Amino acid sequence: MSDELKLALILSDSEKAQAGASRLRRAHDWVEPDEADVFVVVGGDGFLLYVLHEMIDRGVVKPAYGLHLGTVGFLMNSSHDATSIASKVRNAHRVSVRPLEMHATTQSGEQICHHAINEVSLLRETRQTAKLEVIINGRVRMTELAGDGVLVATPAGSTAYNLSANGPILPLGSGMLALTPISPFRPRRWRGAILPDSAEVEFRVRESAKRPVAAVADQKEVRDIRHVRIKASREKELTLLFDPGASLEERIFSEQFQV
C-alpha cells in the first residue's frame, strides 16, 4: 500500500460505535468512501457483513479493516489504539474471502439472487419437517434429507452458524465448503460433507406447498422456495484486513482448540 493511503470511516449507528467516533475522527484525515483505498468499518460483525454486502451490491469492492465496537467481533480488530489507525491498516494482513452466490426460485417462479459471506441456510418455515433433495454438480447425492434444514458455509463462516450446527471448521485458503444438516431426522447419522469450492450445490424442496422452506443468505431471506443453487463467486472476491498475529486464519485455527 502507498504512503498516501486514503481511508474512509464507516460507522455503525450503535451507541458503542458512535461513542468512539470522536476520537477516531481526530485520529486521521478521512476521505469520502468513493475516494478511499480502504474502508475502516466500526461496529460488530453484523455491521461489517452489512457493509461488505453493500459493496457487492454496488459493484465497488474495496479492502475493509474492521474495528470492534459492537456485540460480536470475530471478523474485527481490537479498537484499543485508534491514534495509529493509518499504520495499523498499512501493516495489516490481507485475507481474501470468496462469497457464495445463491440463486433461489420461489414456488411462484420468481428468481432471486443474493450473496453470502458466511453461509446460505435453508430452514423450515412451519412445524412441518423440511424435506430436501441434495444435488452436487448435477448429480443427486441424497434423494431426501429430512430435518430443520441444511446450510452451506464458507471457511470465513464455518465458525458461525455452521459450527453451532456441529459442522466442521474450515481453514482459510482450504478451497472448501461445509455442507451441514440442521437437526437432521433422516438420515439420522449423516453429519454432512466437505466439498471443494468449485462445486455447485443444489437443493430441491419436496412437498414445498405442505412443507414450506426459506433460504437465507447471511441476513437476506427468501421465503417459500422450491429450488436453490449455490456456488462460490469467481468475480466478487472480498479482502479483509487483520492486525499481525490476530488474523482471521489464526482465529479460525484457535477455535479448533476451544474447550
Gist of the model:
By secondary structure, this protein is α+β, with helices and mostly antiparallel strands. It is 17% helix and 40% strand.
Summary keywords:
6 helices; 2 domains; 16 strands; Rossmann fold; single chain; Tumour Suppressor Smad4; 17% helix; alpha+beta; eleven-stranded antiparallel β-sheet; five-stranded mixed β-sheet; 259 residues
Please explain how this structure is put together.
The structure is a single chain. The chain has 259 residues and is of the alpha+beta class. The chain folds into two domains: 7-98 and 236-255, Rossmann fold; 100-232, Sandwich (Tumour Suppressor Smad4), CATH 2.60.200.30. It is built from six helices and 16 strands. The chain has helices at residues 15-19, 21-27, 45-58, 85-90, 161-164, 248-255; strands at 7-11, 38-43, 64-68, 93-97, 100-106, 111-116, 119-124, 130-136, 139-153, 176-186, 193-196, 201-205, 213-217, 220-222, 225-232, 238-242. The strands form two sheets. Strands 5, 6, 7, 8, 9, 10, 11, 12, 13, 14 and 15 form an eleven-stranded antiparallel beta sheet that branches. Strands 1-2-3-16-4 form a five-stranded mixed beta sheet, with helices on both faces. The two termini are 39 Å apart.
